[in-house]
Amino acid sequence: MAARGGFSSRLGFIAAAAGSAVGLGNIWKFPFEVGDGGGAAFVVIYLLFCFILCFPVMVTEVAIGRKTQKNAVGAFNALGFKRWNVVGKLGILSGVIILSFYNVVAGWAFGYFIEMVLGHFDIGQRFGEFTADFIKVGAYSILFMLATSYIVSRGVSGGIEKASKILMPALILMILSLVVYSFTLPNAMAGVEFYLVPDFSKINLAVISGALRQSFFSLSLGMGALITYGSYLSKKENIVSSSALITLADVGMAFLAGLMIFPFVAFNSGGDMSNASGGAGLIFVNLPGVFETLGGAGVVIGSLFFLLLSFAALTSTVSLLEVPVSYVVDEYKMKRSKATMIVAFIIFLIGIPSLLANGASDLFGRFVTYFNANSPTDFMTFAGHIADTFLVLGGSLIVIFAAYVWKTKNLEQELSEGYSGFSNSFVKKYLRFTISYLSPVLLILLFVLVVLSNFFGINIG
Ligand code: PHE
Question: Is residue 347 situated within a structural domain?
């Protein structure tokens, strides 16, 4: 364990894993998925998925990681099921795809920090122009990839843990204050209503599949990120309660981000929520104008917001890069610093089409048209859909593996380490039921529906 490095404390693991979970997925992606998915009905389904389907997957991933103390691929080998390491490989592929576009959006967040420092509050109206400037955004993304690589090359307990412990609480405070402010603005209640009062007639397969993909993405599940982080966790820690805390922190942050954004959207639109589906631009278009209303303080608060958002993104990009890097380090015995450099460079290259997909190139901006769709989807959104879908598949396979190949009793044995009352607990029964039956069945079913809905435009119901 010492040779691979480990988290120095339980809080360190929780902070790092929550740092992985909390990121652009909560503050950028969640609100726009809610907007596109019609509002509160999406939120309700998302919450159900997180707690019922995803939480057991998280517990399983952490347990596999801690048991084997290996990366996402090596873990399956170490348990003696070499064939199943394709699940880890699929995870690595998902991580690579996610990081390739995530890094571009992180570049936007960092660029907005600079724009706020310069007092450019009109950047919200110029969002399209901003993202089309691929030289500038490209430079920000390179900076971001370098920062991520620096932390990953220093190893887990040195870099990741320290950064997360300070930055997460700062971000929570920031968002809480902005929620309070958002409620004081005119028309705020129209936004709150859109966000919190569900109209269940809006639920269709596209909404359900969006919520499912979002819950996996947001909790960093299905690609072995938590197998990898779990591999650095000590046997003394309670996996179940740590996972519960991480889930709560992540869902809580997404929920708060929505509570902050939608009143702002309503304020900007004079209470009209019909165009809340702003897509990837939702927060970038809507926030700067709101910071402007704060007068002089707006520069400080706006800059701080985008700086903290960039840091939240950084603790996530670190976990995304850590998955392929720890694989290369463990399995190919490469030096961590060298592995980091090579992997980061390749991922940056894979991200170039995403960089060009937001205004710079028509080819990537109008990349594919799904069956039955009216308009084409850009490359970045497409890459996102593919990766999210892989996460759902990966997550399903991980629980199926744990329950039926590795076997529930071995999983339970690992969970009882650091959790003395586990064997007689209700939690044990609940997890056994969800991991053996509920999650595999529902996940596979939903996975098929997600593929049909996303890529073939077939919506049942
Ligand atoms: N969960 C991160 C976010 O919400 C993104 C992520 C996905 C990180 C998968 C790691 C693995 O921003």
Answer: yes
Q: Which atom of ligand 1 is nearest the CA belonging to 254?
A: 4
Whether the CB of 320 sits within 6 Å of ligand 1 = yes
Q: What digits encode the pLDDT tens for the residues 274-302?
A: 878 778 899 999 999 999 999 889 999 99
251: nearest Cα among 86, 65, 406, 21: 21
Count of domains for the chain: 1
Place of tokens 């009143």: 263
Tell me which of 97 and 164 has the higher pLDDT: 97
Dihedral sign for Cα 249, 392, 199, 257, please: positive
**CATH number of the domain encompassing residue 162:** 1.20.1740
Contact 124, 111 (CB under 8 A): no
Residue 427 lies in a domain: yes
User: How far apart, in whole angstroms, are the C-alpha atoms of residue 322 and residue 7?
Assistant: 14
Assigned domain for 2 exists: no
Give φ, ψ of 167 to 5 degrees: -80, -35
SS3 annotation, 153-165: HHCHHHHHHHHHH
Residue nearest to atom 4 of ligand 1 (CA): 25
pLDDT of residue 461: 52
pTM (2 d.p.): 0.93
- Distance from the CA of 23 to the center of ligand 1, in angstroms? 6
Rg for the chain (alpha carbons), in Å?
A: 21
Kindly give the distance from the C-alpha atom of residue 326 to the centroid of ligand 1, in angstroms, as a whole number. Answer: 17
Task: For residue 29, report the distance from its CA to the centre of ligand 1, in Å.
Answer: 10
In a domain, 213, yes or no: yes
Domain membership of residue 191 as a residue range: 10-456
- Cα 97 to averaged position of ligand 1 atoms, centre (Å): 12
**Cα(237)–Cα(244) distance, rounded to whole angstroms?**
13
Determine if ligand 1 sits within 6 Å of the CB of residue 21.
Answer: yes
Secondary structure of residue 377 in the 3-state scheme: strand
Of 24, 26, 98, the residue with max ligand 1 atoms within 8 A of its CB, to mutate for a pocket test, comes to: 98
- Averaged confidence pLDDT in the chain: 91
Please give the distance, rounded to the nearest whole angstrom, from the Cα atom of residue 185 to the centre of ligand 1.
31
What gap in Å lies between CA 41 and CA 34, rounded to an integer? 9
Neighbouring residues of 208: CB distance < 8 A, sequence distance ≥ 6: 45, 446, 449, 453
